[in-house]
Write a structure and sequence with these properties.
The complex is a heterodimer of chains A (about 220) and B (about 260). Chain A is built from eight helices and no strands. Chain A has helices spanning about 1-20, 30-40, 45-55, 70-85, 85-120, 130-170, 175-195, 200-220. Chain B folds into two domains: about 20-210, no CATH class; about 215-260. Classes of the chains: A mainly alpha (about 220), B mainly alpha (about 260).
Chain lengths: ~220, ~260
């Protein structure tokens, strides 16, 4: 119970960090997932899931009114799923659950932004008071924290139930599982490359790839 | 409040205790707390400005609360520039209509600048650098620590210097920002970001930590996936996530069926 409560509180924290408070990027998958892994006593799995999710979510940034997958709570749940199911099944379950929860996070965030309209004062309707500003501010912040907590808790409950089943049923070995997930991650890398290469900088991509192949061959 | 020229860009002779401006600056961290589809960051901006607005005369304060709660949508880090400049204008008791027009004029450029410099360049660059370090075998905790320290050094510098610039320049902040050529710098930084995309891809294809050498079918599939993403652009991101989740679900279902039949 303490384990779950701690993870749900971590989910609330990284939800707030994602948009509402500071945006220190504790909510990036590598950090949030690693923290969840540390809390569960398996940091290596947490960081591995976070590193894979980081590749998937490179293009997911909290830009204005845009609706992008919410990485923080998703990464916490992904790490928990990976630790609980263990092995290749855990990695597959963790990444898939995190991608799903990222969308659930985006939808719930949009719903909350509609809800915030109710308690944030509108100067076009009536004169604004300091009390109304403060009330709108703290109500929205509190609801966001609760949203992160509940979203993470629901995700944790789902992966907790799915973990034993996934660990028995997953048919791929470790190499094939990593290959499958990296194929998806490479689409995201390509998307990011496209967004940058529009500036005719593709030669940097090629040089980077050669350097990366060399580094991977030597130190990988 | 002050005898300084109103929003002229000359250094204000502020009667404010230093704590008031510091409070506005710190409150800037919460500028998106009440983000909503009507006024967007408007309420957050008004909340952040409260320490300055509380020092205004009662008559001026009522109107100031109204104008600062109006619609605003910049970038959370670069909003510090607006907070500094607007604080300066309020302290200087500038003409309310000037403040309102300045506030409306600055939000779009600040949003575009932040999107370009932070979301499109800095975040992916630092995340890619962290990914390179991780997949080359640096311990995850070290990578996360380095990422947070390096990224937030830039982040906090933008907030602190942005606020100082806004406070110092007032309505003249636009030309001062243009003089910094942040967009040009981001453009040049994009080359490094793109190189990092290549480095991460290369490290993974060559078999970085936790990956192992990719078997040929996966190697070819990964290269193909990169090409598909490169050609298709951002509209392919969502279908990719759906296909990945679908593939995992189908494999789990097949595995379950195999267990049941076996």
């Amino acid at each position: 119970m303490t384990e779950l409560l701690g993870l749900a509180l971590l989910g609330a924290w990284v939800t707030l960090d994602g948009v509402t408070v500071g945006q220190f990027m504790v909510s990036r998958p590598l950090v949030a997932s690693g923290l969840a892994g540390l809390w569960l006593g398996d940091p290596a799995t947490g960081f591995l899931v976070g590193a894979v999710l980081e590749l998937f979510l490179l293009v997911a940034v909290p830009s204005g009114a845009g609706r992008f997958p919410e990485p923080g709570p998703a990464a916490v749940v992904g790490a928990a799923g990976a630790v609980w199911a263990a092995g290749p099944a855990g990695l597959a379950l963790g990444v898939a659950a995190a991608l799903l929860l990222g969308y659930a996070g985006a939808l719930s965030q949009a719903a909350q932004r509609h809800l915030n309209v109710r308690w944030v004062p509108d100067p076009a309707v009536q004169p604004v008071t300091e009390a109304a500003i403060v009330r709108g501010h703290w109500s929205s912040l509190g609801v966001d924290a609760i949203r992160g907590f509940v979203l993470t808790a629901l995700g944790l409950a789902a992966v907790r139930m799915a973990a034993p089943w996934a660990s028995g049923a997953w048919p791929l070995d470790a190499a094939a599982t990593r290959g499958l997930l990296l194929v998806g991650a490479f689409v995201s890398l390509g998307v990011l490359g496209r967004s940058l290469a529009a500036r005719h900088l593709w030669v940097y991509l090629a040089v980077g790839a050669v350097v990366g192949l060399g580094l991977g061959a030597v130190w990988g | 409040m002050s005898s300084a020229p109103k929003g002229s860009g000359a250094a204000p002779e502020t009667p404010l205790p230093p704590g008031v401006l510091r409070a506005v600056q710190l409150r800037g961290m919460f500028v998106q707390a009440s983000w909503n589809y009507r006024t967007m960051q408007g309420n957050g901006m008004a909340w952040a400005m409260l320490p300055v607005l509380r020092r205004a005369s009662e008559e001026r304060r009522a109107a100031a609360l109204d104008r600062h709660a109006e619609h605003f949508n910049g970038h959370p880090y670069f909003d510090s520039v607006a907070l500094g400049a607007l604080s300066r204008l309020e302290v200087d008791e500038a003409d309310p209509e000037t403040i309102r027009r300045f506030r409306a004029a600055i939000r779009g450029p600040l949003g575009a600048l932040g999107d370009r410099v932070v979301w499109a360049t800095a975040v992916p660059s630092f995340a890619l650098l962290a990914a390179v370090l991780y997949w080359m075998g640096v311990p995850g905790a070290v990578v996360a620590f380095v990422f947070l320290v390096a990224y937030n050094a830039l982040h906090l510098a933008i907030r602190a210097q942005g606020f100082a610039l806004g406070w110092e320049a007032g309505t003249a902040v636009g030309p001062r920002l243009r003089g910094l050529d942040l967009t040009g710098r981001a453009e040049r930084f994009a080359a490094l970001t793109l190189a990092l995309v290549g480095v991460v891809s290369g490290v993974l294809l060559a078999g970085g930590r936790g990956v192992g050498a990719l078997e040929w079918p996966w190697f070819v599939a990964a290269l193909g996936a990169f090409f598909v993403g490169y050609v298709g652009g951002v509209r392919l991101w969502r279908p990719t996530a759906i296909v990945t989740v679908g593939a995992v679900a189908i494999l789990l279902a097949l595995g379950s069926a195999s267990l049941l039949s076996g």
